[in-house]
Design goal:
This protein has helices at residues 34-37, 89-101, 155-163, 171-182, and strands spanning 5-8, 18-22, 28-33, 45-53, 59-64, 75-76, 79-81, 107-119, 123-135, 140-143, 147-153. By secondary structure, the protein is α+β, with helices and mostly antiparallel strands.
């Protein structure tokens, strides 16, 4: 099936939105504004990453909009963000995939991990990230405020993208992809 694409521009991510602070056991310990979570070495907060595959087993990857404060212009997995206060992880993923990609789909939890990644001297991600996979073959509606480009890539092409020093990719994408491969998911 050939995907059809529409593009829209809608601001859906705000530095002033509160994120859920957690401990290493994923127990909520407070809230903090997103901009503050990414300062001073980063504060551990809850996050998610979604890997969407089509029926041909290609992964949807996207290039983050250049306007993103952290890793703008970098290639990454299908959808990644943070649950809002009061949202379940599944609600957050459905909301965010609809906001960024224009669709929702069934998803399956794979694993959770903690990481820290510094972006120049601008900010730090310190996340306890839940990784999910899903499948989709329909129409995309890309939010240009979040995404500047997208591609469907085979497993070998994802490996090449992540191995290419000339291609900027997010650190969590590389870590998560390696773990998905180690677990035999991809």
């Amino acid at each position: 099936m050939t995907n059809t694409l529409t593009t829209r521009a809608e601001i859906v991510s705000f530095d002033s939105e509160p994120l859920i602070l957690v401990n290493s056991e994923d127990e909520a310990v407070g809230e903090m504004l997103k901009a503050d979570c990414h300062r001073d070495g980063g504060k551990l907060h809850r996050a998610f990453s979604l890997f969407i595959f089509n029926a041909s087993n290609q992964l949807l990857v996207h290039q983050r909009a250049a306007s993103k404060p952290l890793w703008g212009g970098f290639w990454t997995n299908s959808c990644c963000s943070h649950p809002r206060v009061g949202e379940t992880m599944e609600e957050a993923i459905a909301r965010r995939s609809a906001e960024e990609l224009g669709f929702t789909t069934d998803m399956r939890f794979i694993y959770k991990f903690e990481y820290t990644a510094h972006f120049k001297d601008i900010g730090t991600e310190h996340e306890l990230c839940s990784v999910f996979i899903g499948e989709y073959d329909g129409k995309l509606s890309i939010n240009a405020e979040e995404i500047s480009d997208y591609r469907w890539l085979s497993t070998a092409e994802v490996d090449q993208l992540l191995a290419d020093d000339q291609q900027a990719t997010t650190p969590w994408f590389a870590m998560e992809w390696r773990q998905l491969k180690d677990q035999g998911v991809v």
